[in-house]
């Protein structure tokens, strides 16, 4: 039976780009994902991957012959917010954290079962689709100079548009919609990523918070908006001049 992530919201098949230099493994990945209902394209090099048509998810082997799949991830992140899943023989925690900090969405460690592969791919696809989220019942939020519009998915500070990725926006909006409420990393994985610590490293949350602070905070080391509650998690500081609705 096809996984839930095999089709998009309009009923078309999700497209997966496989970047794997080993011909046998490339063929196996193509066969497994195609059997689940995905449209697949498989390439062997970073150059081929960057020239390929847009995909809904990119599956990258970290070791691509003489190339490093993490270099490809960096190139992808410059031009796209497409979900990326690493395929790796490196199961060490530090390797996984390093990849997540670079923008990877998940890791699949070799050897893997067909069930794990398809479940992880489907989970990342579900988490990556803003259209799958329930629409917020309000038009917008403003906290002082910070304005968040869930309709246009835009964040402004003093009228200046702040460029956030889709997931960075989702996380900012979720925290800002419940000011002063503290959320743990597992809670944020559940509510923002529709995931859990069992499937996804909590470092994903930490890294996204770090990136958001670099974009919206005047001093990321002394954040005004998103603060850390040591030993617990994060909360959004509304200040005294907060109000709901459009300015």
How would you sum up this structure, described in words?
The chain has 247 residues and is α/β, with parallel strands linked by helices. It has two domains: 4-130, Response regulator (Rossmann fold, 3-Layer(aba) Sandwich), CATH 3.40.50; 141-244, Orthogonal Bundle (Arc Repressor Mutant, subunit A). The chain is built from eight helices and 14 strands. A hairpin with a 2-residue loop joins strand 8 and strand 9 (146-149). It is elongated, with a radius of gyration of 19 Å. The model is unreliable at 240-247 (pLDDT under 50).
Descriptive key words:
single chain, 247 residues, alpha/beta, Rossmann fold, Arc Repressor Mutant, subunit A, 5-stranded parallel beta sheet, 5-stranded antiparallel beta sheet, 8 helices, 14 strands, elongated, disordered C terminus
How many angstroms separate the termini? 49 Å
- What topology, given as strand order, has the largest sheet? 2-1-3-6-7
- CATH class bucket of the largest domain: Alpha Beta
The total tally of domains equals: 2
Number of helices: 8
Mean pLDDT across all amino acids: 84
Largest sheet: 5 strands, parallel
Q: CATH homologous superfamily of the largest domain - what is it?
A: Response regulator
Q: Could you give the count of β-strands?
A: 14
Which percent band covers the strand fraction? Answer: 15-25%
Proportion in helices: 25-40%
- CATH topology descriptor of the largest domain: Rossmann fold
Strand/helix succession: EHEHEEEHEHEHEEEEHHHEEE
The global form is elongated
Secondary-structure content class: alpha/beta
Cα-based radius of gyration, to the nearest Å: 19 Å
Q: What low-confidence regions span 5 or more consecutive residues with pLDDT below 50?
A: 240-247
């Amino acid at each position: 039976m096809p996984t839930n992530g095999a089709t998009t919201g309009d009923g078309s098949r999700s497209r997966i780009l496989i970047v794997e230099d080993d011909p046998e493994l490339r063929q196996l990945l193509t066969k497994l994902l195609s059997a689940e209902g995905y449209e697949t394209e498989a390439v062997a090099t970073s150059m081929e991957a960057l020239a390929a048509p847009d995909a809904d998810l990119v599956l990258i082997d970290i070791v691509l012959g003489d190339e490093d799949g993490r270099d490809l991830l960096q190139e992808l992140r410059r031009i796209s917010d497409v979900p990326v899943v690493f395929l790796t023989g490196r199961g060490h925690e530090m390797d996984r954290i390093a990849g997540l900090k670079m923008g990877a969405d998940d890791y699949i460690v070799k050897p893997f079962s067909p069930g794990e592969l398809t479940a992880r791919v489907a989970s990342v696809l579900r988490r990556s689709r803003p259209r799958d989220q329930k629409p917020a019942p309000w038009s917008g939020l403003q906290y002082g100079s910070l304005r968040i519009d869930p309709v246009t998915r835009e964040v402004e500070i003093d009228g200046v548009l702040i460029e956030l990725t889709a997931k960075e926006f989702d996380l900012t909006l979720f925290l800002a919609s419940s000011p002063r409420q503290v959320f743990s990393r597992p809670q944020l994985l559940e509510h923002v990523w529709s995931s859990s610590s069992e499937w996804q490293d909590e470092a994903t949350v930490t890294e996204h918070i770090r990136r958001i602070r670099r974009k919206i905070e005047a001093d990321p080391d002394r954040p005004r908006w998103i603060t850390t509650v040591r030993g617990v998690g994060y909360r959004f500081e509304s200040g005294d001049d907060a109000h709901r609705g459009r300015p």
